[in-house]
Design brief:
single chain, about 375 residues, CBS-domain, four-stranded mixed β-sheet, 14 helices, binds zinc ion
């Protein structure tokens, strides 16, 4: 879920929203103002119900944010990198950079979110009792009462021991602590996550099919989201294990064919690219300096009429944006940089000299090879 707009920084953490939050906000405010509040507490004006509905929805998102801030602040205090918080369709996500260093860190970061929701549930419950005791209107009491219930549900749901839910992270930390094997712990927590996701999808489909409520579809989507997150985590640890100990120089295609940066795109297409059978060419200037990386996919965007006048360097990805790697660097470290680069390729430099290129094909070839060489790893993992 991408961030569509930025709200600001809270406690030093960047907070943003995906547009889907607006849909959820509207759904919550509408269902409270048009159905739940009038049904449970009749006799108020339409405006009264809408004010109560909107106020409740705003405070609900604030308590959701508090849950995510709990994760982010504790993670940062325990030395993890925090990239920010995004609120979206299924609540919030605290984006943390990298993995927890120890099970204790993982456990605390995972547990604090539901902890915050539990505390919020208690405070809202106390407010509801207090408001009622001093004789406030039924509709006003209904606001903290609803917030107490929803925060309790949020805490309990997130504590289900199924990755990527908070409870799944706590489960992973406990298994990791017990067996000392982070990979095995991750796979177990992710499998629990998959099972739980299937249960959610099944229940959601049944609810929808039986016509109980259209809300069943929401559970189907939520289940599907959890399923893909659990799968990605499982695949991620497998990849990390398979690539453990593999260096960039073991993976790269050595001594890549370069092309002169001064050539026009038309000149390159007339024979040069075809005769070399590659789809990416590092470009070098007259002094042998690297200028950029030209890929065939980049040429697709260039109109045919402009090929004879466009120098290759202008059609290429500038060298400052191409990820580079050291030959002795673990290939795992390069994966992240390659993943976010526009062309999916990295150049390998040895003391500034171009010695190789790494493409997605190189990575998948070594993954297949390592999977064949070490079947014991893939035997206990299904990707
Ligand atoms: Zn959480």
């Amino acid at each position: 879920m991408n961030e569509s707009f930025r709200i600001g920084r809270i406690a030093g953490v960047a907070v943003g929203c995906n547009w889907s939050v607006l849909v959820v906000f509207w759904l919550i405010a509408w269902s409270l103002a048009a159905e739940q509040f009038p049904d449970a507490h009749p006799g108020y004006s339409r405006t009264g119900y809408w004010v109560a509905g909107v106020v409740t929805a705003v405070v609900f998102f604030a308590s959701l944010l508090a849950h995510e801030l709990g994760h982010a602040v504790v993670a940062r205090r325990l030395g993890m990198k925090v990239e920010g918080i995004t609120l979206w369709l299924f609540g919030g996500v605290a984006k943390l950079g990298g993995d927890a260093a120890t099970p204790q860190v993982e456990w605390r970061v995972g547990a604090v979110g539901p902890g915050v929701s539990l505390v919020a549930a208690g405070l809202f419950g106390a407010a509801a009792v207090g408001f009622d005791a001093v004789g406030m209107s039924e509709l006003v009491v209904a606001i903290p009462a609803w917030l107490a219930r929803i925060n309790l549900i949020l805490a309990v749901f997130n504590l289900v021991p199924a990755y990527p839910l908070d409870g799944g992270r706590v489960l992973r930390a406990l298994l990791w602590q017990r067996h000392g094997d982070r990979v095995r712990a991750t796979i177990s927590a992710a499998r629990a996550g998959r099972t739980f996701a299937y249960v959610l999808i099944g229940l959601g489909l049944a609810e929808f099919a039986l016509g109980v409520s259209a809300g069943g579809l929401w559970f189907v989507f939520l289940g599907w989201f959890l399923l893909s997150a659990a799968r990605a985590e499982e695949a991620g640890v497998t990849t990390n294990q398979l690539l453990d100990g593999v260096r960039v120089k073991d993976v790269m295609s050595a001594d890549p064919v370069t092309a002169p940066a001064s050539m026009t795109v038309a000149e390159l297409l007339d024979g040069y690219i075809l005769s070399h059978r590659f789809s990416a060419f590092p470009l070098i200037d007259d002094d042998g300096g690297l200028v950029g990386l030209l890929t065939l996919s980049r040429l697709k965007g260039l109109p045919a009429a402009e090929r004879s006048t466009t120098p290759a360097s202008r059609a290429a990805c500038p060298i400052s944006e191409v990820p580079t790697a050291d030959p002795d660097e673990p290939v795992i470290h390069l994966l992240e940089r390659i993943g976010t680069s526009p062309d999916g390729r990295a150049l390998v430099l040895d003391e500034g000299r171009l010695v190789g290129i790494v493409s997605p094909t190189d990575i998948s070839r070594v993954l297949q090879f390592e999977a064949l060489r070490r079947p014991e790893l893939t035997g206990r993992v299904t990707v």
